[in-house]
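>> received
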Amino acid sequence: MKDNRLPSSILIAVWVYTGLEKLIRFEESRRAFQNQVFPYDIADLLSYGVPILELCLTVLLLFSATRWLGFLASLILLSAFSTYIGLIWIEVFPRVPCNCAGIIESLGWDEHLLLNIILMLFASWGLYGSSPSNKILKGRGAVFPLPKVKSCKTS
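>> returned
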């Protein structure tokens, strides 16, 4: 099946939820990033960058012209998150603070990794069902279709 609306809708919901949650609770999220194992400056940059990236992925996934890139970027970001969890599993870090958003924060590391793997499968499904050729956006391929607009040709 080449229709990619289900995987894009699921990823859009996840990225909107996590991105907005981090922005709404920005100071708490920022402190959690600063409590991570990487340097303070990187943590500060990530506290701004991660939620913005999550919301940018939402925009990429909304439109057929950019959806393939959105799936690819989602797969890369989820792989990075999963790698971090894997490093936690093998006890690479001296402490393991979680900077997840909302209800995802309540998951254990096993459940969190399982969720990431499921989301990576959706991103992979979306990649399979999307063309990297990125046809010109005409509104019909959007998850939430755009209205058709008449063309204004002047003679």
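>> The mean pLDDT is 82.
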